[in-house]
Amino acid sequence: MVTDLDGTLLDHPKYLSKKYVKDLNEMIDKGLKFTIATGRDMKKTLKAIPDLKLPYPCILTNGALLADLKTQEFLKITNINPTIINEILTLSDEFKIPPIVFAVFNPNSKKVTFNKGTWGSKGIKPLESEHYLPFKEQDVVSIQFHTKKELLDPFKDIIYKNFKKETNLIYIEDVAYNALGYEGEWYWLEINSHEAGKAQMLRYLTDHLNIKMQDVVAFGDNHNDIGMLKAAGYGIAMKNSPAELKEVADYIAPSNADGGVITYIKSHIEELL
User: What EC number(s) does the entry state (predicted)?
Assistant: First the structure.
């Protein structure tokens, strides 16, 4: 069983409630095979589920990374072709849309560093060039942009046209910005390697664990979960999901605010075990 975090497992915007952590840990202790596939990095994932006893590695950064949260070791890392990175950054400069996240892997320290600007209630401030240009020759795991849709659309379209075979693009709306009082439609554009993706990394993990994809139950709530739900044997969308995800799902669970993932697992625990 694999689940997304934000909008799916998490009933709070920043974490999973203690009562749900307790319920889930009890089911994991009984033998539930369970893990996470999230767009979050390791630090933010650990903050959201610090007390969850995950028995298997987790899929992070929308499938760009596979990690053991207990040891904080990265087990599989995907990186973007260096030539493409240079071309993307040239386009970024031309469109005057600097990255807001620039993640790189250091093979010597075996660590992934996420250079980040600011967003959300703190305001919006992309990265200054000195926080990403000196790192572009390293193993770049992920480049992310965040701005209004009308600015990001033409930038995204060129990248997709030029590099669709060499990259995995995630383009989703930041719906939280309406609640924060920002005008217009604000979107995230995340660029990862073509080897990345929740579905791709899930296939790698199941092969490693000798589990058949047809035996996997997957939960998600957004467009970046479509591939994972389609690849799994049984795909479950949350009630709060967009129509595009619900169309590919085998079942619709209650919303994340109502503990939909935990509710489903508890009501099906015997067959899942």
Answer: 3.1.3.-
Query: Span 200-212, mean pLDDT?
Result: 96
Of 194, 120, 186, 116, nearest in space to 147 by CA: 186
Q: Are 152 and 97 in contact (CB under 8 A)?
A: yes
Alpha-helix residue ranges (DSSP H) falling in the chain: 18-29, 42-48, 82-95, 149-163, 176-179, 198-209, 226-231, 243-248, 260-267, 269-272
Please give the domain boundaries of the chain with CATH numbers for all domains: 2-77+196-272 (3.40.50.1000), 82-193 (3.30.1240.10)
Cβ proximity of 35 and 228 under 8 Å:
no
Q: What is the pTM of this model?
A: 0.95
How does pLDDT run across 44-72, given as a tens digit for each residue?
999 999 999 999 999 999 999 999 999 99
Q: Tell me the β-bridge partners of 219.
A: 3, 236
